[in-house]
Input
Amino acid sequence: MDTRLEEKVIAGEEKAEPEKNLSKIKQIKKRLSKSMDAKKPDLDESYYMASQWQLMGRRFKKHKLAKYSLIVLGLFYFGALFAGFLAPQGLVSYDAKFTNCPPTKIHFIDDQGKFHLTPFVYAIKSERDPETYRKGFIEDKSKIYPIRFFSRSVEYKFWGLIKTDIHLFNVEDPGKIFLFGTDSMGRDLYSRILHGSRISLSVGFVGVFISLILGIIIGGISGYFGGLTDTVIQRIIEILRSFPTIPLWMALSAAIPPEIPVVHMYFYITIILSFLGWTTLARVVRSKFMSMKEEDYIMAARVAGCSTTRIIASHMVPGFMSYIIINMTLAIPQMIIAETSLSFLGLGIRSPATSWGVLLQEAQQIQNVALYPWLLIPLLFVVVTVLSFNFLGDGLRDAADPYK
Amino acid sequence: MFEYILKRFLIMIPTVIIISIISFWVIQLPPGDFVSTYAAQAAQEGEVLDTAELREMREVYGLNDSFFTQYRKWISGIIFRGDFGFSFQWNKKVSDLIMSRMGLTLMVSLTTMLFTYLVSIPIGIYGATHQYSFGDYLTAFIGFIGTATPNFLLAIICMYFAFRYFGSPMMGLFSPEFAHAPWSIAKFFDLMKHMIIPIVVIGTAGTCGLIRVMRGQLLDEIKKQYVITARAKGVGEKTLLYKYPVRASLNPIVSTIGWSLTAIFSGSTITAIVLNLPTQGPLLYGALLSQDMYLAGGLLFILTTLTVIGTLLSDVLLAWLDPRIRLGKDEA
Amino acid sequence: MKKVFVLLLLMISSTALLLATGQQGEVETAVESGNEWNEAPMLHEMVVAGDLPALDQRIPKEPMIEDVIDEIGQYGGDLNLAWKGLGDKWRMGNISVECLFRFTPDGTGLIPNVAKGYDVNSDATEYIIYLREGMKWSDGEDFDADDVLFYWEHMLIPGTFGKKLYNCYYSVDPESGDKVRAEVEKIDQYSVKITHAYPFPLFLERVTIDNKWFFAPEHYYRTILPEFIGEEKALQIANDKGFNDIKSMGKWTGYYYWVWPDRPTVRPWVAKNSPDEAQVIWERNPYYFKTDALGNQLPYIDRLVIDRVEEENNRDLKAIAGEIDIHDVASVEKYPLLMENGERGDFRVVKWMEPQTHGVALNQTVEDPALRELFQNMNFRSGLSLAINREEINDIVYDGWGESRQASMSKGMANYSERWANKLTAYDTDKAAKFFDEANLNWDADKKYRTFADGSDLTLILYYNSTDGSHVEKSMELIKSYWDAVGIKTVVKGVDRTLFDEMKYNNQLQASTNNFNVFNVALRPDVVVPLRVLTEWSGFYGLHTSTDGAEGVAPEGDVAALLENWGNLTSATSKEEIAKYGDEIMALHEKNLWMIGYVGNMPKLWVVQNSLRNFPEGLYQTDETRNIGAANPSQFFFKQ
Output
């Protein structure tokens, strides 16, 4: 029997008989085949001819969750890129009449039971409760505002270059469409989330990337060379690690002149954060290096005359690729969280510029948690982003695993 | 081994000194000093201090001295007399302040750390051995929620729910009736009730990372040759798992355990502030904000010493756990 | 005859019956509220056991009688509060404050408090303050004129608690403007005479604001001041008490004394444990000198239990959970949240009023000469004022709770004028543009932003204190958008509180927040008269005054007129003259609008447990009336 048939037989036996009835040998065989299964690829020409990346690509596609995560992240980044177009409102669309308004309901069928081809929203009426002074918003079913696509609204600069005022969708004045409701100043939360994603999604990347490069290089050098280099680098790491970050942030915040754009300031702070953040990765890389240094294949490479860089780059690094990937996918959400912490301490982005961190910080009020819970929607976005990055990391790790 | 520890120990001393100088300097980086913070705060309470008073305060607190004089006075106080100086803000000795909060800080931090490790490691092992199963995804999901949500937001949401459905936001560590009462079973239970939210908030943030790392590492190890060999030899699944792969996977976790010492000590500052826990974290934060030099300096000094000790501990543990490193050292 | 006799009998018996029941009614009320012993049960027990002297030996012969707010109260209960710790000491200071005199709620007159009364001679140079005979400190020692004299001689003059002698003790020579210190002497055990060289009509009012109390426990200080026991021993005691040196001991026990457990006071409650514990307890002062209208010794409430809670969100949460009995709410936007939870937490929301106006101002002594000229130009300020959409700020930031108004006095206070409150408050961008044209501002090439007459760039940097709360941040954001809309390019920068103050003291501010918060110009002029660097609009003018011309910028024009009027006011010899100069100062402000207000008269919200009574409504929240102190907290009680 060829191996594939053998597998099927074993598999069939598995399904047919409950495990506990299998004899001991069969059990061992089953477990062996389980671990060997993974090692049994499709044995055709294309497999042997495929490059490393193609192999990775194929294996990646098998991981369903990773695939979906990639799609989701792609959507988010797309949203960030085209935020101006996709959002019906800008960042400064204050509206006193609609402060703390819950999300607008979209309808297809109106009160009379008539079906509309284009979705629509009703006008919103606000009433103040005389006792609690709370604004209540109810639909005014007498006025219908169909959602218009490619409508004209607030002017903005597309990618900072082209001035235009076309948005993906909007409703005609005085109708309002608040997909995720509004905040305490009447600004559309959906628009703010989109605009905020530009900062949150991009800056995390940059910071983590810097930490990564620094961590691998320095950690690798430290672990590989050992001795004095190692000691010195370790001490530097300790010094950096014990740095009190809060006064550093305060000092920075004070030293930055007011005229520079807020986003620039944020980049400065992120770079500082990543400068302090690479230490964890460096230490782990170092410990891995130290244990791998003694592996046979490294010794073989050394004996064969490979240069140090080549040894580190092509032999050792793939060895702990998995750990790096996990670390990186965990680091991006950590950066996002770090940004929210900065905002919490009052040192990050300020209104009207927005990031998810700012939105979360604004939600950090008892009355928001209690009365206006839609303000917590940015939290969902953060969580989904984090999940997606993590599943993506999983998929990449599985795909790139050299041991398979 | 012993030689190694001794060498590291000796190197520790100049490291700590350099760190202490830098910390002392960074504390004073933000503009102004303790007196200006004090004046600003007083002004907010409706009390206006004039320049003469401020000048005098600066004299009394020694803020007019040069940086090095101040540093010298401070560090010599610590090294020769064990005197960490005086907190301007609290008007008490720094050592008193730190000690008074030490017990509760240790308790909170150790409990949450215990929770984190006890929960993460088994889940990580489960995830690795039952890869792609429903349980794997479920635990991943829960872990991520914990890490993805900023602690302060999670804390306030938890407190609000506690208020809504249990009638009390469970703030701080004790209910008002027990704050001054002597220790008793009832007081202990009250404490445990109040510990739930901190453990959930602080713990979940840590579990995610640990779970993923444990899982990832173990997955790597399981696929290795020696595991397959052992399985072929007929070694039981459980022994197979715990004798070698788990030990090896603990490698990266151990190398960061040393740094948990500082986390233990400062007890997750932001969460503690939000939850009103009387631990060291908020103490340090307040000291740094108001530039209360000696309190901030003292706490930082302790923190840095702990970091350095922690690093040493990690390295020793690493060497002990992973024979390859040990051997490597001997050869070198 | 028989008829008359029976009638008489009936009349007498019915009268007797009526009297009897009437009396019984009285007895019943005395038992329900207050009680028949006129003192707290816990104190009465101690009296009976012989641990405490009887009531009539603890309170003065003529105690201070507090008027009834709602009803006579009942004894008992713990008042649960929250504070931030020692950084929040005034919160506890205000709730327990006792001064010689205190202000009437509208700020125009004085009521005797610790003092029994006073006499003043016709030209306001001699004041006699009468103390209460039989009054005692919280440890049972006598409170008398010796305590005032001691405070004057050994604490005020030598500045043992870190403050130099207050301005209120100096009378001013109308000719030369020289300040001459008053003389204080003891007339008898319960009277003190203060003699001024020159007429000083507002002396007692000034004392009530500046020095507040004006007494200290002599017997206590003789045991700790170095003057009496020597430096070494004093230092030893300071260290024992946990202080670093004698000066801090002096400051903390002499000025912020209410937080320390062993320092005797005359306040209704006395600290029982150290202020840096997580929970601080204050207990009733058995020698408190006030009673209610029926002669029951106050306070009604037995203890204050104060938890340390640092975050505002936490305090709010504790308040709506009903764990704090009195909570002062930081901002009006929490109102719906409070009202929705009133039942669950068993509390009510009480509204007071903050008689101040939030505003912005331009630093009149800003360093850049072009900016300075522009800022000092009334046309520019007028334009900026008209460009602000006050209604919108009120709606968006304050949910419509405040009033859109100009920076001016509030109704119910002296110098209120409707005309001033409405000056230039309309939202009129066309008129604003005209004012900017009058101020010689041009437009840039795109006609988007205004420039100086010579075409150079004009950018306003609007600073605010980032620790002030989100409503300031939002208001500044809105104001920026309004000023941008009329062509004044504005950049908003929030800075840390300490940095904000640093910049203020170094004349580095440009445009910034500047609240108009004045109680009475004659008593506390700092916001409107540049006597020192304090208020954002007056910048270094204040430094010039406080250093007698050595540093700073010399005031000119109307600013100089302010100082001149103030000088006249301090040396005025009658209350009418004082009022006249006060009016002049306010008129100058109305004319110049150095502070541009947008929204004011915000309600001050309190969360009060339903069972807590005698909490007054509608008072003004000012620092001079000691915020919550104005409610006379010794009268609070829990209805059982």
